[in-house]
Design a protein that fits this description.
The structure holds two protein chains of two kinds. Chain A is mainly α. Chain A has a single domain, classed as Four Helix Bundle (Hemerythrin (Met), subunit A). A two-stranded antiparallel ribbon of chain A has the order 1-2. The longest helix of chain A has 45 residues. Chain B is an all-alpha fold. The chains are: A mainly alpha, B mainly alpha. At the A-B interface, helix 1, helix 2, helix 3 and helix 7 of A face helix 1 of B. Chain A: Required for the export of heme to the periplasm for the biogenesis of c-type cytochromes. Chain A: It holds the Pfam family Cytochrom_C_asm. Chain A: One of its GO terms (biological process) is cytochrome complex assembly.
Chain lengths: 239, 46
């Protein structure tokens, strides 16, 4: 893993990987949306609103995957002092927060016709709202530490502690009575019909590729800012 | 009396929110990256 710790090597890989992830992500996501809107059949019980699930499930998945990225990167920073780990964590924060907000918004829009309400304070929805607040706290904390020149270990510890919410979100529908349905997809089995399952799989893949592209772009921006600042400081000292 | 809900209105709203949010994030990240990398090149050239 430390083989990729060299910023020059990271940039060499990121320069060709970013457009590959971005273009393939845009293509697959657009294809999923066309399928979800125009080609997928309406469902027997949910009717047309089932089409929302082709975008709701991937955004919720990426909200949770985003914080998992922050937690793993934070662990790598704290334990192995990987030099790019803090950049990876900060790079995942904004797209993770956006997908969490989109997951909440699309879930709420789906809930109105399906459940008859925009919102209920049940375990799944509340723990997912807490995830959005955790993201906002992490973004504010990491930004303040970067501006004020504090230790990057502080947001890393926050990122690790916040990971406790991920299993709570996952198991909330099993632990507490909830309007939200239990998982439809398990390890090696699914209660969904193939036309929905394949569409969901494509949606998760497309949005995940876009997420990867955005994380790389944000990491490259943060790295460039650090390098420009270091160079200007060095020149100021030399002058 | 039950209100009549057109399910397509909800479908279109959910897709619109997702498309606008995702494209805004991708565009903003791309522009931020390009701007930061241009500033790094400028700092190298000084």
């Amino acid at each position: 893993m430390h083989g990729y710790a060299n910023p020059a090597r990271f940039l060499r890989i990121a320069r060709w990987l970013t457009p590959v992830l971005l273009l393939s992500g845009l293509l697959i996501t657009a294809g999923t949306m066309v399928y979800g809107l125009f080609l997928a059949p309406a469902e027997r019980l949910q009717g047309e609103t089932v089409r929302i699930l082709f975008i709701h499930v991937p955004t919720v998945w990426l909200g949770m995957a985003g914080w998992s990225t922050i937690a793993i990167s934070s662990l790598m920073e704290l334990v192995w002092r990987h030099p790019l780990a803090a950049l990876a964590a900060r790079g995942a924060a904004v797209p993770g927060a956006l997908f969490t907000a989109l997951g909440l918004a699309t879930g709420s829009i789906w809930g109105r016709p399906a459940w008859g309400t925009w919102w209920v304070w049940d375990g799944r929805l509340t723990s997912f709202l807490v995830l959005l607040f955790l993201y906002l706290g992490y973004i504010a904390l990491a930004g303040a530490v970067s501006r004020e020149g504090g230790s990057s270990r502080i947001p890393a510890i926050f990122g690790l502690v916040g990971a406790i919410n991920i299993p709570i979100i996952h198991y909330s529908v099993l632990w507490w009575n909830s309007l939200h349905q239990p998982p439809s997809i398990g390890m090696g089995n699914s209660s969904m019909s193939p036309e929905f399952l394949w569409g969901l799989g494509a949606g998760v893949l497309g949005f995940s590729l876009l997420f990867g592209a955005v994380v790389l772009m944000r990491m490259r921006a943060l790295l460039a800012e650090i390098q420009a600042e270091a160079r200007l400081r060095r020149k100021a000292l030399e002058a | 009396m039950r209100e009549a809900l057109n399910q397509w209105n909800f479908v279109i709203a959910a897709y619109a929110v997702t498309i606008i949010g995702t494209l805004a994030m991708v565009g903003w990240s791309w522009l931020s990256m390009r701007r930061a990398e241009r500033q790094r090149e400028k700092a190298r050239g000084r």
